[in-house]
């Protein structure tokens, strides 16, 4: 019985390399060694659906007409033929290349980027998810030659963010029910300068470990120190060990209103606890609270959204205690600097070695971290579609206005003519 294309089992990469005809060295290796990997004069060969089905996967990319995948139109690739168990070199279009099995990993290798398999291996070796910077000794040797005026902008931006971080305020999320709300709170906290966020996990949470949704957090979780607890008791013990006063959000009559009319003394270390959306903080947390606080509301709704409430409370605390900004100890700053610089370098080996030189000699922070040019956070094709629709709506509006003006003018003219006739 013949199987359709979807049910056919793809050969594993290890199987593909066994007993198959290897391409001639001149076809691939010479291209890489001679530096002719980028060839703008490539022309693709016809490749129909039958040809596509015959190939099991992409072995590797030999050349392309651009090093930017978005600009690529033609590639020279080595393909594994499922029937002959041999490899064939073909020049194909990007449209034909993209659906092929293992095309993504082949392009990453061609562009010297780590594959998914390599990234998983790296995470096992480095739990922080990033490669280490070069050794402090090597960095110190290079630091003497640093030009402070030539520091990379992203490092100066990191220093500005670091200079505004606080350890005085710690945010605790107790048993958040909605995962989207939880992640929105992380983004809010990071934007306001909070560094430490503790989470008492919801018993219904499926993941054993916190997993961020990048569409919601916008990567803010990468710059936070997040700690998770299974129970409220465990979290309270850790807070007491850290010598923190516990302030919980509560709508009871005993809670203090945090508005501009009330003056409150902010302790040296305070943990602000935000309760669950449905019923607020637990009885255990309320019983252990040093202070209960709430925000005034002036509408019919009896509660704020979780992220909105967090933003208002934290902003109020910073307004009352502006000296909380930038109070991270130097030791923690150095630890965060090591982590952040590594993340900012990403997978660029050369960039990592350059950034490492600045760890012990951090550059001056930016005066303003806002970008020089606003970059849309939506995909280009989505932004293009939105812009086109907005232009169409605007065009229709102007056409209606022109038609209305024309109609009014003609009506006014006919009325004037009629009046003139009657007078005669």
UniProtKB/TrEMBL annotation:
InterPro entries linked: Alpha/beta_knot_MTases, SpoU_MeTrfase, TrmH, tRNA_m1G_MTases_N
Residue ranges constituting the tRNA/rRNA methyltransferase SpoU type domain according to the UniProt record: 169-314
Protein name as it appears in the record: RNA methyltransferase, TrmH superfamily protein
Biased composition (Basic and acidic residues): 1-15, 389-401
Record keywords: Methyltransferase, RNA-binding, Transferase, tRNA-binding
CDD domains given in the database record: SpoU-like_TrmH (cd18092)
An example Gene Ontology biological process: tRNA guanine ribose methylation
PANTHER family: RRNA METHYLASE-LIKE (PTHR43453), TRNA_RRNA METHYLTRANSFERASE SPOU TYPE DOMAIN-CONTAINING PROTEIN (PTHR43453:SF3)
RNA-binding found in the keyword field: yes
Gene3D superfamilies named among the record's database cross-references: 3.40.1280.10
Region of interest (Disordered), ranges: 1-47, 389-424
GO MF annotation terms: RNA methyltransferase activity; tRNA binding
Compositional bias (Low complexity): 404-424
């Amino acid at each position: 019985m013949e199987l359709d294309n979807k049910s056919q089992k793809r050969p594993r990469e290890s199987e593909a390399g066994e007993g198959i005809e290897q391409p001639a060295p001149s076809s691939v290796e010479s291209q890489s060694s001679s530096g002719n990997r980028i060839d703008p004069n490539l022309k693709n060969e016809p490749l129909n659906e039958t040809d596509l089905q015959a190939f099991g996967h992409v072995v590797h990319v030999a050349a392309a007409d651009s090093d930017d995948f978005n600009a690529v139109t033609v590639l020279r690739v080595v393909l594994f033929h499922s029937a002959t168990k041999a490899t064939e070199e073909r020049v194909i279009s990007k449209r034909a290349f993209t659906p092929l099995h293992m095309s993504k990993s082949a392009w990453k290798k061609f562009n010297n980027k780590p594959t998914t398999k390599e990234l998983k291996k790296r995470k096992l070796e480095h739990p922080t998810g990033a490669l280490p910077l070069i050794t402090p000794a090597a960095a110190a040797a290079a630091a003497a030659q640093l030009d402070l005026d030539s520091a990379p902008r992203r490092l100066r931006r990191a220093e500005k963010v670091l200079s505004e971080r606080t350890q005085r305020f710690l945010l605790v999320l107790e048993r958040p029910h909605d995962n989207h709300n939880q992640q929105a709170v992380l983004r809010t906290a990071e934007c306001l300068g909070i560094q430490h966020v503790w989470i008492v996990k919801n018993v219904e949470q499926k993941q054993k470990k916190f997993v961020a949704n990048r569409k919601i957090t916008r990567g803010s979780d990468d710059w936070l120190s997040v700690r998770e607890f299974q129970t409220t008791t465990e979290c309270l013990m850790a807070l007491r060990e850290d010598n923190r006063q516990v302030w919980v959000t509560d709508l009871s009559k005993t809670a203090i209103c945090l508005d501009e009319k009330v003056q409150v003394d902010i302790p040296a270390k305070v943990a602000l606890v935000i309760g669950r959306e449905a019923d607020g903080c637990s009885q255990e947390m309320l019983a252990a609270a040093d202070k209960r606080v709430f925000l005034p509301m002036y509408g019919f709704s009896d509660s704020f959204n979780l992220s909105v409430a967090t933003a208002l409370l934290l902003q109020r605390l910073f307004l009352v205690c502006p000296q909380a900004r930038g109070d991270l100890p130097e030791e923690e700053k150095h630890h965060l600097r090591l982590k952040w610089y590594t993340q900012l370098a990403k997978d660029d080996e050369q960039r990592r070695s350059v950034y490492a030189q600045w760890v012990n000699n951090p550059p001056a922070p930016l005066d303003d971290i806002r970008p020089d040019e606003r970059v849309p956070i939506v995909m280009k094709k989505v932004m293009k579609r939105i812009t086109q629709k907005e232009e169409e709506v605007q065009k229709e509006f102007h056409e209606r206005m022109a038609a209305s003006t024309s109609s009014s003018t003609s009506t006014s003219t006919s009325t004037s003519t009629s009046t003139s006739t009657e007078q005669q």
